[in-house]
Amino acid sequence: MSRKWLLISTLVLFVLVACATPAVVEKKVVTATPAPTPEPERVNVAFVLLWECADNGWTAAHCRGIQELRSLGKVVAEMPNSFDVQVPDGRIVHVAWVEKAGDGPDSGRIIRDFAVKGYNLIFATTFGQMDFALETATEFPAVAMEHCSGFKTRENMNWYMTRNEHSSYVSGYTAGLLGYHNIGIVATNPIPEVIRDINAFTLGVQKGLRESGRSDWASASDVTTVVWLNSWRDAEGEATVAQQFAKGGFDLIRQMADTPDSSITACKAGVKAVGYGMNVANYGADCALVSSTWLWGPYYRRQVQAFLAGTWKGGQTHYGGLGDAPQSMAGLEGWNVPPEVKEKALAVAEEIAKKERSAVVKGLDVASQDGIFSGPIYNQAGELILPEGKNLDDEYLLAKMTWFVKGVKGQTP
Amino acid sequence: MKIRIERRLQPSKMVSWLAPITGVFVAFLIGALVIRIAGANPIVTYLVMLKGASENIAEVVVKAIPLILCGLAVALAAKVGFWNIGAEGQLVLGGMGAAGVALFLPNLWPSIPGWLLIFLMVLGGATCGALWVLAPTVLKVSLRVNEILTTLMTNYIAILLVRYLYFGPWRDPEGRGFPGTALFIPEAWFPRFGNTRIHLGLAFALILPAIIWFILSYTKWGYQTKIVGESQRTAKYAGISVVRITFVAMFLSGGIAALAGVGEVGGILHRLHQGLAVGYGYTGLIVAWLANLNPWGVMVASFFLGGLLVGGDQVQITMGLSASVGLVIQGLVLLCVLSSQFLVRYRIRWR
């Protein structure tokens, strides 16, 4: 048999294999759309995701939020990476998403591509996509752009982020009530967002310890110990650090990465954990006390509905916590503690939520009202940074928190 | 039927071109199997990829620019017998050099003309990249230290060095503490073609392969370089300074890879942050081998790989396949193309 025949037979085989497969995934029409002759007006919503929905962390939380858009109406079409929802007034909201867009130049292309294809409302879901989102928003002024966890806005671009210091404070308080005072924190990147999260958690632990009669522990200088992964997700690194914490006699491990590996490793090593991002008990860390999570669904529903109603506004910054309306953006899921502890923790959460709601109604800066970063607060060196009666405000929290509170053992750059 | 494997007397010219193409074909065949297992129709998938790439040619070009430059750098180094796995680090250093100029020169000289600023960004970036490959070259030439290891290691050092810069001294003071430098002033943004993202880097990506091809084919230095690559002993007998040729070639190689970083930073990112090191240096290895180390082939291979990746985006939405399909095929292409090199030196005979 000559070479030529080998080539030809391979080609034939290839064609046969290809033809034997079913055709392209058909658009499954779930229910018949009502048949008025003009096509119902379409509104196209896109989400540009950092990683995959199966990452059990940051992107999984966004995907969960995306799925909540199904409740806007009746799902009339179902496709691999998108679905169509028919809302009560007859319009069709087409929701599509791209996974693993990353936060490099490829994400810029994907964001712009959505704008070129006529998508009306685009959500860029990670910090690194900020400038690309801004660029596309500038080039396509008719597009409504939403960017998560950044800080730039434009007349047609908003930024939104969760006040995870709320949920971290409450989960820290829970840990403190239960007497944990030697906590290992598997932290990600040393930026103000993460630093204030760690600070809020530690302040919560200290409050819990004081309330359960262990003030001596509360005033120790190493209630929490921080190790930086220098990455948002690093499964092996997380597992290694968690193991070191477990071996080193720490009594609790607080996850902060986008993947649940530190919590899972903690549970395996017999040390309790506090999860992050999503409910880690769903991924094998069933010893977790609670997880402080992202609840993006309510915000996504609200923004899509605003767009449909014609009331979507750009240039907004949305920084919502436990008291966000209509529902909290900061989640506390997977409670696994004695009922009286959970009750106390939820009471503190409700207090914070009330304060946030009243601050918003009065037009006041939320951080200065929610009672978390209220004086007296000392830094690691024992200096009084915030005297009694004073509060930090949003601007400080977002931009200037580059130091740890007393009680945190660890370094900031 | 008996199969015999015979060594060719002379590597066949025709086969040396047919081999990579066969490799690509086989890669697509295996890729079809993978796609089929994932539950989709391979032909439709490939057509969707083709459609996705052809509807977005501008983005394919944007993607091809750093691939061409990195591929060229790797190919040039390979011509002189040096495996440059460090293109990624050189790219990052190039970005660093360009960023350094863009961030600090306007403060020292506020009225600097735009063209001069960009010219100095390019020069600064290229120099940094060229210097970055110096250490592995010195080690190889003087102590015969394997350059695959040294250049690979320098990648990690480069990425960490740049990370230190944009987390530390170069961090944007207005950046809310997030890592990354400030955005460059508009004068430091590379000009773009029309309303696409194709930037000045395209000029380098088109001109440099031509220049390198010309040097290699028609100049004395080019000829000497090829001899050094084929056999250092022959070169020494011919009185060619292996050390000098290697240094010059590597200096060029590092500089060209750095230009990829300069382009990304000046034309797309407009700042220095973690979005720079995304793997173009490593993909450049695939490009160089796919292109048979030929400068023109590098351009073709880069557009091909760029199209693969851009088309791969579409596959996610339309076919519901994982976002990794494009990457899987890319890996298969490298594997199959390298394996197909076997056919260049050996022929298969069957009776």
Structural write-up:
The complex is a heterodimer of chains A (413) and B (351). By secondary structure, chain A is of the alpha/beta class. Chain A contains 12 helices and 18 strands. Chain A has helices spanning 3-20, 58-67, 105-116, 130-139, 164-177, 192-211, 215-218, 235-247, 261-268, 297-309, 339-362, 394-400; strands at 28-29, 42-48, 74-79, 82-86, 92-98, 121-124, 144-148, 157-162, 183-187, 222-228, 252-255, 272-277, 290-294, 317-320, 330-333, 377-378, 384-386, 407-409. Chain A has a 9-stranded mixed β-sheet with strand order 1-3-4-5-2-6-7-8-14, sandwiched between helices. Chain A is globular, with a radius of gyration of 24 Å. The termini of chain A are far apart. Mean pLDDT of chain A is 89; it is low at 21-36. Chain B is mainly α. Helix content of chain B is 72%, strand content 3%. In chain B, strands 1-2 form a two-stranded antiparallel sheet. In chain B, α6 (134-143) runs antiparallel to α7. The termini of chain B are close together. The interface between A and B is large, with 50 and 49 residues.
Helix vs. strand class of chain B: mainly alpha
Number of strands of chain A: 18
Q: How big a fraction of the residues of chain B is strand?
A: under 5%
**Main sheet summary of chain A:** 9 strands, mixed
Contiguous low-pLDDT stretches of chain A (5 residues minimum) are 21-36
Q: Nearest-angstrom radius of gyration of chain A?
A: 24 Å
Distance separating the two termini of chain B: 6 Å
Q: What is the general shape of chain A?
A: globular
How much is the radius of gyration of chain B in Å? 21 Å
Taking pLDDT < 50 over at least 5 consecutive residues as the criterion, the unreliable ranges of chain B are none
Number of helices of chain A: 12
Q: Can you give the mean pLDDT of chain B? A: 89
What percent strand of chain A?
A: 15-25%
